[in-house]
Design a protein that fits this description.
Length: about 120
């Protein structure tokens, strides 16, 4: 075992606590490099995209949505879940094309569609 491996975090137990909607909740027991251990609760959700669409004038497309948890209307970047078998770029484009009541109708360019680490 290398020095780096000896110092890494190690998961020694995972327990599925149940499913809800599109996600699951797990309890993960972790050993830290210093020898201490703790339980971490992890929500596992399907893959999703968030799109920062900027038009030629430099404006960013935002969507106004009501969030019931905070009981407020908020501004967000468009985004959503990736459908089964859909690639990330297609999901991003679909999220930009879905009708939104408060969204601007000026179409941002697809140039510069990029994805982060998977």
């Amino acid at each position: 075992m290398s020095h780096q491996e000896a110092r890494s975090w190690r998961i020694h137990d995972e327990q599925d606590l149940g499913a809800f909607g599109r996600g699951t909740l797990k309890r993960v027991s972790v050993d830290l490099p210093d020898g201490s251990s703790f339980d971490q609760y992890v929500i596992v959700l399907p893959e999703a995209v968030v799109v920062a669409a900027v038009n030629a004038a430099g404006s960013i497309l935002m969507v106004r949505r009501h969030r019931f948890i905070v009981e407020q209307w908020v501004w967000e970047l468009p985004g959503g879940y990736v459908d089964e078998g859909e690639d990330l770029e297609a999901a991003a484009v679909r999220e930009l094309e879905e009708p939104r009541p408060s969204a601007s109708r000026s179409s941002p360019s697809r140039d510069g569609v990029a994805s982060g680490p998977r």
